[in-house]
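Input set for joint prediction.
Command: fold jointly, output tokens.
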Amino acid sequence: MKDDAENKDKYLVIKANQGDTEAFGKLFDKYSAKIYRFIYYKVSSAEIAEDFTSQCFLKIWEQISSGAKVRSFQSWMYKIARNLVIDYYRSREREELPLIYQEEEIQSEVKVDPDKNLDKDFLEKVLLNLNVEVREIITLRFIEELSIKEIAKIVDKSPANVRVIIHRALKELNKYVE
Amino acid sequence: MAERIAKQFKRLQQTGPAAEWAENTRNFLMSRISRDTLGKEQPWFESFQLNAIIWLRKVSPSPVKAVSAFLVLAMIGGTSMVAKAEYIPTRSLYTVKRTVEKIELVLAVTPLSETKVHLKHAAERKNEAVKLTQQASISSEDKTEHINTVVKSLKNDINAVQTSLEIVKGDKKEPQKAVILAKEITDNVNKTIEDLDEVKKIAFDENIVDVKQTVDDAQSAIEDVEDESIKVLIEEVTNKKASSAEAAENAAQNNTEENQAGVKNETVPAGNKDAKEIISEDELKQIITKKVERTDKKIQEVKEIVQNITLASASSTTATAADLKEVSEAAENPAKAEVKLIEAKSLIEEGQLSEAMVKVQESKQITKESKEVVEKIKETQDKATAENNQQIQKSAEGIKLDEVKIGSSTTTESTPEVIEEAKFNSSAEPAESAGKVETPEEPADFVAEDLSSEPSEPPESEAKVEADLNIIK
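tokens >
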């Protein structure tokens, strides 16, 4: 099934490169929300996330039209988005700390019953309280439901390393459990 | 516990960009792409790649399709494996087996491969016939029917082999193919003929007589195709021998000329050594010798039958002069056939294979004709013996009835000895036999009337019975 999806993506990429705008439109429809979420939970700003998502797709198009070879479109796309965010923070490192979530830090003494349906805001807060590096992996693993192997490719880490980070993150989440 | 919280993060999938932004961005990207690709020429490999992906998407099966296809194939494979062991033609698995065989035939495209498949099927039919004869749980009638069916199929396969051989023989471009085919046939048929003999023997032992003709026909067809194959092989060996001799002669001539001119020359190889030898003369001799042995075996069988018939005719009082003449003529034929075989053997030793084969065929023909004659005589004799036996039994029963009538007060024992004794007494000394009756309860006139029906001299039918008894003994 994964291979089929990959083949479909490749097909759309080639079609887009041949000038089929609708093919790229399909790729956008399929991945724009995912890329947006990935960036949003990195920067925790809707505006910045939207801006980066647009930039990300523009970059994707530029690379496709320049004839870049794409093996796994999804991993490649997340990597482009990740690099955009990293570049952005590098350029603004000395200027300011744009992470809004730091102001909204939740009290660690808040305890919840994990068997109950948790509030979306609470989940967002819990997620944003995690370390940036850990948050990125948790987003890809539990929100986007990617495999460890795919995550390892996106974040340039070994699968074992990714597993260790997920394990630590789960340990950290234990403090919210009743 | 923390995993449960982590799993609830999935609910954050609802987070997404504003619809308006999404639409605007999409439109912006579309216009950008349209602008960038305007007038852009596509390299050929991109079109090729695109088509390859389309094709791959069409061809590559989904997991469900793949698993289903695998299951179907496994089922077909499994069924055909089970069906392979089936040998009773009326069962449904046998139909599956034959269908698989038909597919094998369709897949065989060259005459050589087709012949191989036919020979394989013929061997399979032969195995089925052997199994059927050995099967105790099938009734004689069914056995006869099944054996006839499989042996007829075997004959059809052999006929197909014969046709293939004729087609390949007609192909003058590749004469080697006919030789390969002929070799393949001779390698396979010998065992089939021997096993069919076994089938006949078992069938005869089990009193299944109706299969003999079918098996004989099949064997005759196999022998014919074998003869044809041997002829092809003989031709090949003879041609090779001739070309070798010619080459050797040329080489010798060249050497002489060069020696005269004072030039040293290396030895020229005799014959064409590059050509792959399909069959050697020795191998062919072995094949013909096997055929000679088989014919000899048949001659011995005929001789045995002739001996039995001669003995029976000599002791029979009913045998006419014409019968005896027929038997003596039939007895001469195996001897003639044997002489032909001895000639064939010496010709094989001399290397005159073609002539040897003619002698073998002549011997085979004489044996065949002789066998037909002696079998007919034997059949007639057997019939006569059976009729006589019936008459003897009837006579014995009649005597027994008489004794019951005579010895009404004393219980008459009906053992064969008593019947035999009574028969002799009643025929030779009727009065004495009557006198043996101790207390006749029947009226005297009744006894007298009963006895008056017996002739005083042994009747003609009784003499015939005696003669028949001798034959049986």
